[in-house]
């Protein structure tokens, strides 16, 4: 109900004079804070006041106006409110309204401050993320540097190890030589002790020894001359052998060429035979096609075909005879091939001996050149006598090298220790890097969690904006406290992140410093190795006492003898192995040739079989097509002694073997021979009418006419009965 209506009704009730008391029900003032609508109650009170003031004084004095109110705490147990109560309620409502507006302003200011703080937190988060990325990049760069350093260290270590191995090998060789020298020195000392006791005897025998040495030198020179003469004689002998073997080889090659020519002739014959066989097969195929197409031709064409076939049969017989002769020639050729193979083996053995002799000569020349090159390569050596002097100098250099090797071994041990330290440092740096990566992962997780919290806070701010008008001070304070706690926690986390980043940067700087130190140490070690510095306290110098000229010459001669013996053994082994290889290769070639001959024989037998099968098929086809079987035979004439070919034609429907017609083939002419069957009246009539110009292909025989064939199939354009 509106306030004006309440006032008008109250005025009407008072003016009517019916009521002693007028009660106006208004809402409780305490509900204003809950509903938020204070203006309606204020307007109601003002309207009632105006209505009461407008009333006349009589009516106003006679009536009492009471305001009913639900506020029992203010007025006690009575439900009546006075004007003062109304004014108090109004004042309280106004104060509450002002307080609520103040609170709203404070909350809006706090929201603005929270927004600014959130923006600051976002900027800090971005800066932290950038710092984290920078730290990751620095960590990756440090890892790359570490990898590069490790690779350099490994390469340096490999180089140093290779150098160390080379030096160790040299040291081993030098130690072996030193042991030999020490042994010789011990023997020399023993000899010197014995010589001190027999010094006087040696003075007398020194002259004798010098003479003996001169004789031995002369003997050795004569022996060397003899060796040279023997070598020259061996060279001449080998040259003579090689010339003889070359002549044998040339003769064998000529024989091989002849055999090849014979083989080529045989191959040509085989190719001709194959061509003839192919022509025969083609003729047979053409014969079958011609027989099918020549069913409607005249009898003269058939006789010509038969004559041509007889000629081909004669040529086949001649070819078969030639093949028999060819087989006999093949066996002879096989025997010749075996004999030539034996000759070739002998020639190859002689060639191998020649090659071995040449190799021996070459090896001797190479040895002489090696000695000459050795003398040329050795500096300050022009004669054979200068070699022991040079050996002494080399021994001294060897001792100096052993001293350097000792220093290098010590330095290598130091390098190994330094490498172990570097590996330990590398492991520590790897552990630190792992810790750094784990810290980065924790930072990322915390950043993600902060992002989520910021999003949640934004959602809560939106809810606060929608619900700020209805929430109390306590809820607003609680939210502000909560936001402050979140901000403080985020600030504390950001500080911890910055501290961790600083710690990691310090670790990276330490790692870089350690890498620089290691580089400087490696550079110093490499300079020392390059200079060849050594510690004189750890080295020993050994001075040789004995002169080793005679011993060196003896060793050289013994080494030469051993080398010659080894070369002789190697040459013997090579000759044996080459002979075995050649024999194996020849056996393989012979087996291949035998396989080829067997394959050719099999192919020839197969061709013969196929040819016979085709001939039989052709004869059967001719028999079925023409009604007569043709058989060829040879007969020798008594008068002339010449062989004559006979062809017997027998009908399919003949009852006995005597019912046949015999033809004699002479100089491309066919002559009919008389017999009982031909002299019969029916056959003589057929011969008289049909066989004067053609062969009796299908005579008008009563037995043949018994077959019930169609008249169209039996007629011909020339009135010749045929299929």
Overview of this structure, please?
This protein is 79% helix and 6% strand. The chain is mostly helical and 723 residues long. Among the domains are: 79 residues, no CATH class; 230 residues; 88 residues, Copper Amine Oxidase, Chain A, domain 1. The strands form 2 sheets. A 4-stranded antiparallel beta sheet has the order 4-5-6-7. It has a 3-stranded mixed beta sheet with strand order 1-2-3. The C terminus is likely disordered.
Task: Catalogue the unreliable spans.
Answer: 28-37, 54-81, 539-547, 692-723
Class by alpha and beta content: mainly alpha
**How are strands sequenced across the largest beta sheet?**
4-5-6-7
Order of helices and strands: HEHHHEHEHHHHHHEEEEHHHH
Q: Which oligomerization state do the chains in this entry correspond to? A: single chain
N-to-C span? 137 Å
Number of strands: 7
Q: Helix tally?
A: 15
Q: Provide the helix percentage.
A: over 70%
Main beta-sheet strand count, sense and barrel state: 4 strands, antiparallel
Measured by DSSP, the beta-strand proportion falls in: 5-15%
What's the shape?
flat
Rg (CA only): 68 Å
């Amino acid at each position: 109900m509106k306030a004006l209506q309440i006032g008008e009704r109250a005025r009407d009730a008072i003016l009517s004079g019916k009521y002693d008391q007028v009660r106006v029900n208004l809402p409780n003032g305490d509900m204003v804070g809950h509903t938020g609508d204070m203006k309606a109650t204020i307007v109601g009170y003002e309207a009632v006041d105006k209505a009461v003031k407008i009333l006349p004084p009589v009516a106003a004095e006679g009536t009492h106006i009471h305001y009913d109110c639900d506020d029992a705490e203010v007025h006690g147990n009575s439900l009546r409110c006075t004007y003062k109560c109304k004014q108090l309620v109004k004042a309280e409502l106004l104060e509450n309204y002002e307080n609520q507006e103040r609170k709203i302003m404070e909350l809006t200011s706090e929201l603005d401050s929270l927004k600014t703080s959130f923006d600051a937190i976002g900027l800090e988060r971005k800066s932290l993320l950038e710092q984290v990325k920078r730290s990751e990049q620095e960590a990756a760069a440090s890892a790359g540097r570490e990898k590069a350093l490790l690779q350099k260290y490994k390469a340096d270590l490999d180089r140093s190890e290779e150098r160390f191995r080379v030096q160790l090998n040299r040291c081993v060789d030098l130690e072996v030589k030193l042991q030999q020298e020490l042994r010789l020195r011990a023997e020399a000392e023993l000899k010197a002790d014995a010589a001190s006791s027999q010094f006087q005897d040696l003075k007398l025998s020194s002259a004798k020894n010098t003479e003996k040495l001169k004789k031995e030198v002369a003997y050795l020179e004569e022996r060397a001359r003899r060796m040279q003469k023997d070598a020259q004689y061996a060279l001449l002998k080998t040259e003579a052998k090689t010339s003889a073997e070359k002549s044998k080889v040339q003769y064998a090659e000529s024989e091989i060429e002849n055999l090849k020519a014979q083989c080529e002739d045989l191959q040509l014959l085989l190719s001709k035979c194959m061509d003839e066989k192919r022509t025969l097969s083609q003729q047979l195929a053409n014969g079958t096609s011609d027989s099918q197409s020549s069913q409607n031709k005249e009898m003269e064409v058939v006789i010509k075909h038969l004559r041509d076939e007889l000629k081909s049969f004669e040529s086949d017989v001649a070819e078969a005879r030639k093949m028999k002769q060819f087989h006999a020639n093949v066996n002879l050729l096989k025997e010749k091939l075996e004999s030539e193979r034996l000759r070739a083996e002998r020639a190859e053995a002689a060639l191998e001996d020649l090659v071995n002799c040449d190799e021996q000569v070459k090896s001797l020349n190479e040895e002489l050149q090696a000695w000459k090159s050795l003398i040329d390569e050795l500096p300050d050596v022009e004669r054979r006598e200068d070699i022991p002097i040079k050996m002494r100098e080399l021994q001294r250099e060897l001792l100096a090298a052993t001293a350097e090797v000792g220093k290098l071994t010590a330095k290598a041990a130091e390098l190994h220790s330094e490498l172990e330290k570097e590996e330990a440092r590398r492991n520590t740096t790897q552990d630190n890097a792992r810790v750094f990566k784990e810290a980065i992962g924790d930072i990322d997780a915390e950043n993600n969690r902060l992002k989520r919290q910021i999003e949640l806070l934004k959602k809560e701010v939106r809810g606060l904006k929608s619900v700020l008008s209805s929430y109390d001070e306590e809820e607003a304070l609680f939210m502000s406290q909560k936001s402050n706690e979140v901000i403080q926690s985020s600030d504390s986390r950001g500080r911890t992140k910055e501290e961790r980043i600083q710690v990691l940067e310090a670790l990276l700087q330490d790692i870089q410093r350690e890498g620089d130190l290691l580089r400087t140490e490696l550079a110093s070690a490499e300079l020392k190795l390059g200079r060849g510095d050594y510690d004189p306290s750890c080295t020993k110098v050994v001075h040789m006492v004995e002169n080793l000229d005679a011993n060196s010459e003896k060793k050289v001669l013994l080494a030469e003898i051993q080398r010659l013996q080894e070369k002789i053994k190697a040459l013997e082994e090579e000759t044996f192995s080459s002979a075995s290889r050649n024999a194996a290769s020849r056996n393989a070639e012979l087996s291949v040739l035998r396989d080829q001959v067997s394959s050719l024989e099999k192919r020839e037998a197969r061709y013969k079989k196929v040819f016979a099968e085709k001939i039989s098929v052709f004869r059967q086809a001719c028999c079925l097509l023409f009604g007569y079987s043709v058989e060829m035979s040879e007969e020798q004439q008594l008068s002339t002694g010449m062989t004559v070919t006979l062809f017997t034609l027998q009908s399919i429907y003949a009852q006995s073997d005597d019912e046949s017609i015999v033809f004699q083939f002479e100089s491309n002419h066919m002559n009919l021979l008389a017999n009982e069957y031909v002299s019969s009246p029916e056959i003589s009539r057929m011969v008289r009418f049909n066989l004067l110009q053609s062969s009796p292909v299908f005579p008008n025989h009563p037995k043949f006419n018994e077959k019930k064939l169609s008249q169209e199939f039996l007629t011909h354009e020339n009135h010749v009965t045929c299929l």
